[in-house]
Design a protein that fits this description.
InterPro entries: Chr_Tranpt_l_chain, Chromate_transpt
Subcellular location: Cell membrane
Protein name: Chromate transporter
Oligomer: single chain
Organism: Paenibacillus terricola
Keywords: Cell membrane, Membrane, Transmembrane, Transmembrane helix
Largest sheet: none
Structural class: mainly alpha
Number of helices: 16
Strand content: under 5%
Order of helices and strands: HHHHHHHHHHHHHHHH
Number of domains: 1
Shape: globular
Radius of gyration: 21 Å
Number of strands: 0
Distance between the termini: 74 Å
Length: 398
């Protein structure tokens, strides 16, 4: 009877996690930093699921891992609350609203000449302003000195001159090696031990599965020549190599879907602009891309594939939480990787965003106005989206 009661309690807890995270998925506007604020208000202040110190440590750990940090924090809280299924429930709840919205947007636009719509062109210019702000804010924090600025510049140059997914992987790996030596004395965080409902063996299994999928999916893609395998491989690899936040997934995805002919550059940037207008994680941009390419099934595969590395990594890392945050070499590698990420984002800002969106003085003026509204006036994202769409329509009439 006691075991049955515990099972029922777990089921109730999983449902509660889903319900709470679904509410956050509908209301969390403003990007990953804002998401962490919403999480703190709901999970810490209101529900007391973690204490302040534990939440801060979880955020620190997720920021060190590749993947969407805010989604990983939600997965981590769900996992600590109700095990593996709790983490899945937290991810589904937080992801579902924006994934559905972007999939519907893709299905409505599918087959239409989006490049001819002024408001779509305005959304592309919105992407210019938003990524420019992201580069500035990340640069202030992540490249504060000469050595890290040099790493960022080298990463940008390599990514632009060698535009392949292999170059990005090589850039991140090279930055990690540099960081092991250059920043090996980075200050390690003090982490408090947390009760974990999953064992180290389970954590190791998740980390092993992460590596196996990263290695085997390209082989399966090449051997089978299956489009579904190619879709899974492209989105899984993109999700596995993202350090520094959701905006960094842009160049990885662009290299995977535009040169292959799966999606046009216009559709890509229109979807990226629309992704800024919905709540929840920016990684659900994959739902839009998958739907444009292969309908509902494409959206489902792309969404699961791009988030799967984040889930495996955070669940795999949680049992080793204390060790990772105390490892100065690990933190040193991440310091250098973060600098390289800024460089990769700079490269993406130039191509495809700038070269596809800023084609004249009118576009540049609109981008400058939107950036000012976003950075200095601190206006909500939905106002920036609306202003960009209206500005694009006005430019079309000029």
């Amino acid at each position: 009877m006691k075991e049955r009661n515990e099972i029922e309690q777990t089921r109730t807890s999983i449902f509660t996690i889903f319900r709470v995270s679904l509410k956050l998925g509908f209301t969390s506007f403003g990007g990953p930093i804002a998401h962490l604020g919403y999480f703190h208000s709901e999970y810490i202040n209101r529900r007391r699921w973690l204490d302040e110190r534990s939440y801060a440590d979880l955020v620190a750990l997720c920021q060190l891992l590749p993947g969407p940090a805010s989604s990983q924090v939600g997965i981590g809280i769900g996992t600590m609350r109700a095990g593996l299924l709790g983490g899945i429930a937290a991810w589904i709840g937080f992801t579902l609203p924006s994934a559905l919205a972007l999939m519907l947007f893709a299905l409505l636009l599918h087959g239409l000449p989006v490049d001819s719509y002024g408001w779509i062109h305005g959304l592309k210019i919105v992407a210019v302003a938003i990524v420019a702000q992201a580069i500035h804010s990340m640069g202030v924090k992540l490249i504060p000195d000469r050595s890290r600025a040099t790493i960022a510049a080298a990463a940008a140059a390599l990514t632009l001159l060698w535009p392949t997914s292999g170059s990005q992987l090589l850039t991140i790996a090279g930055a990690a090696l540099i960081g092991l030596f250059l920043y090996r004395r980075s200050e390690a965080a003090e982490a408090s031990p947390l009760p974990m409902p999953i064992s180290r063996r389970t954590g190791m299994a998740c980390l092993l599965l992460f590596v196996l999928l990263l290695a085997l999916l390209p082989i399966i893609r090449a051997v089978t020549s299956s489009h579904w395998a190619a879709l899974m491989d492209s989105f899984y690899r993109s999700g596995a190599l993202v350090f520094g936040g959701g905006h960094v997934v842009l160049p990885l995805l662009e290299r995977e879907v535009v040169p292959t002919g799966w999606i046009s550059s216009g559709d890509f940037l229109a979807g990226y602009g629309a992704a800024q207008a919905v709540p929840g994680p920016l990684f659900t941009f994959a739902s839009y891309l998958g739907a444009i390419d292969s309908g509902i099934w494409g959206a489902l595969i792309a969404t699961v594939a791009i988030f799967l590395p984040a889930y495996l990594l955070v669940v795999g890392a949680l049992p080793f939480w204390h060790t990772l945050l105390h490892n100065s070499k690990f933190r040193g590698a991440v310091v250098s990787i973060n600098a390289a990420v800024v460089g990769i984002l700079i490269a993406a800002f130039y191509d495809p965003i700038w070269v596809s969106s800023i084609t004249g003085a009118y576009e540049f003026a609109l981008a400058l106005i939107l950036l000012t509204m976003l950075t200095y006036w601190k206006l909500p994202t939905w106002i920036i989206i609306l202003a960009g769409a209206l500005g694009g329509m006005l430019i079309q009439q000029l």
